[in-house]
Amino acid sequence: MRSATTITTRSLETSDKHVQWLRGADGEVWVWLMGEGPGDKPYEEISEELMAERARLQAQREAEELWRQKEAEITRQFRDALASEKARILAERWKEETEDRKAAKTLEERIHEEFKRKEAEERRRGEAEIRLLEQRRAQELYWSLKRAQLRGAAGEEQRAWEEQRRRSKAADEERSRSARRARDESRRHSLRAIQKGTVAGLSSMFQELGQSHAQEARLHHLLRGPGPPRPLARAWERPLRPISREVIVRWFKEEQLPRRAGFERNTESVAPWFHGIISREDAEDLLENMTEGAFLVRVSEKIWGYALSYRLQKGFKHFLVDASGDFYSFLGVDPSRHATLTDLIDFHKEEIITISGGELLQEPCGQRDSPPDYHLLFE
After folding, report:
1. 249: exposed, middle or buried (Cβ count in 10 Å: 0-12, 13-18, 19+)
2. The whole model's pTM is what?
């Protein structure tokens, strides 16, 4: 083997790049043949070693792939075994609780059927009321436009008609939005209401509605002082809407006292949040110096029901509570129905009234003057 020296050969063309060739002592390019140099292994031995290393690496890769598959299979088997065991335990518990669930389901279905019947009746009453209001409003608009026509105010008549159309359209849009909000909040509250015991509350409502005449007489005896019990005079015709304070007072005594409206639960004491026929301004004046979450319930002069006045951080909110049927519920916000007025208040001490406002009833606003503003209702 020749000794080698390094000789630099430049290309014929002028360039900064160059190639270096390793040359021997004789000036020729130095060449090494694998397996023929001093101390070199034979070519066959080198080839065998290369094939053995390649086979080892391939076997290693295949073994790793087999282990990944085996590991996945082991994981799947134990996961399936764990799931089967959980399913077995749940099946045993389900079997133990079947009878209780069947009884609860039967009660719930019976109450739901009663709800559907009463809802259908309420819808019929509501539709009749709307039709009557529509007829009255049509007559009012007709005579209003007729008077404008007789006065020769054609331009004013057109403006009034356009304004009425605008208001009607705005009212329709607001009703649609309210309906959507009611549906959304109904879905949110439905499961929570059942969990909170609304089913039990409704069951007690139907029992209370069937209370005996003697029980009602005893209630009036406690409220109206000494003397022989007097029968309740239920045979009175309730107007479509409240027309005077005297009619509202009679409605409260005839329909609400037997249902213990305004009383604390299971006592003969008037609830601290209950107020009489007071105005919106009076309610806000009572709540003025209280913190957010304070509230009171007052007898409404607009509907057969109540108004719940609520203290915000800045300002107030007022919600109407419908009591014209056999239940209590908010108008236009939360469609949940409650057996008593106290049930509605207690429910919204834990559940918000609206999603957008997040109102929770926290601190009742009591009386400030003497006698209390509800004394006419209990005389």
Report:
1. middle
2. 0.42
